[in-house]
Amino acid sequence: MNKVVKNVEEALNGIQDNMTLMIGGFGLCGIPENSIAQLVKIGARNLTCISNNAGVDDFGLGLLLQTKQIKKMISSYVGENEEFERQMLSGELEVDLIPQGSLAERCRAGGAGIPAFYTPAGYGTEVALGKEVKVFNGKPHILEMALTADFAIVKAWKGDTEGNLIYKSTARNFNPMMAMAGKITIAEVEELVPAGELDPNFIHTPGIFVQRIFKGSTFEKRIEQRTVRKRN
Amino acid sequence: MALDKVGIAKRIAQELRSGWYVNLGIGIPTLVANYIPEGIEVEFQSENGILGMGPFPFEGEEDADLINAGKQTVTLRKGAAIFDSATSFAMIRGKHVQLTVLGAMEVAQNGDIANWKIPGKMVKGMGGAMDLVASAENIIVAMMHTNNKGESKILKKCTLPLTGVGCVTRVVTDLAVLAIKDNKFHLIERAPGVTVEEIKKATEGDLVVPDFVPEMKL
Description:
The complex is a heterodimer of chains A (232) and B (218).
Chain A: H1 8-11, E1 20-23, H2 33-42, E2 47-50, H3 62-66, E3 70-75, H4 82-89, E4 94-97, H5 100-112, E5 116-119, E6 133-136, E7 139-145, E8 149-160, E9 165-166, H6 175-181, E10 182-193, E11 212-215
Parallel strand pairs in A: 1-2, 1-8, 2-3, 3-4, 8-10, 10-11
Antiparallel strand pairs in A: 5-7, 6-7, 8-9
Helix pairs in contact in A: 5-6
Chain B: H1 5-13, E1 21-24, H2 28-31, E2 43-46, E3 50-53, E4 76-82, H3 85-93, E5 99-103, E6 106-108, E7 113-114, H4 129-135, E8 138-142, E9 154-155, E10 170-172, E11 176-181, E12 184-190, H5 196-202, E13 207-208
Parallel strand pairs in B: 1-2, 1-5, 5-8, 6-9, 8-10, 12-13
Antiparallel strand pairs in B: 2-3, 3-4, 6-7, 10-11, 11-12
């Protein structure tokens, strides 16, 4: 089944105000840069964004914060972003902070048809407020609900026309689970190849989870914390 | 003399055992990787999806697609593996990671830890800390014994919002190594030149002090 769309405009067609979006990436690593730029152009507002982080002021989801398109962020860590802080403290932006593993599993569960699951993470903390507690093997767990989205937007290294995806290094992160949990999943890839060119044994996200795929035109791949060691 | 951050990291490195998979948090814990004792073989897990994390890359070899959980550019060791975030936390939640080292703002004698939120200040989020402390069998906390006003961070009860309950087993500070057992802190070692009296004074929680308290060997 051919999932290829012409360009980012066609890929993001249908994204509207008030929708819930999942956006892959960890920090600025493995984020769908081309799609985020297009979201700014579309101008859809009151968005709920599920993403591990919120980008930095001038890159990643930070761009959508500058344009005030995001109503609510669901994330595990949102530092490194002054505009985010300003909007959060002024009450313009709603923020739901979730332990990282619970966030990953909630996306996976959403895509896997599991409505909720118990986890020990967050028990006894404010994350557990209002959540059902159940003891298994003598240890208390809290009930966490699955997450799904109107659109999931992921970034992969290589993809084929069938929508099969391969990620590179730690740019994989949240992308595979989010790809599973979107009603419509859009994959932005660095290389788009004909079906048959990717080894089926090394596919990370099978094409069934992807509805639209396109080759991104530019990838800046900004590094958030450049750390190096000196050569002797 | 009280230890500096490197001293704390060196002391924690002595707790590593061959064959362990270890998750190091941001800050002092990251430094532990630089002081692995000779003959000890461990693998570092980074919760954004690496087993077998290596040192920082040489200048010019940074790869934007290869970072650690602190978003720093890193490298992979031979035999490393990459995986997604759900698999990563399956390793953590499923107790496949033997040791977690992380920082804290407060630790209490019942094993509670607070390290993610100060009311009234910008909240950045807990990241993976709550998942890590809820499931790790061994948690070592790396921290300063007191805050910059000299107030103890080793407490009867945490005052800040909690990250996890009853989970910390060991604390290494600039002054001492403490174990947590039976709702008390137990003094295991003291930093070179630091007296038991100094440690008692800096500890608000109940502290059990044996007759002889050895000095750390760094």
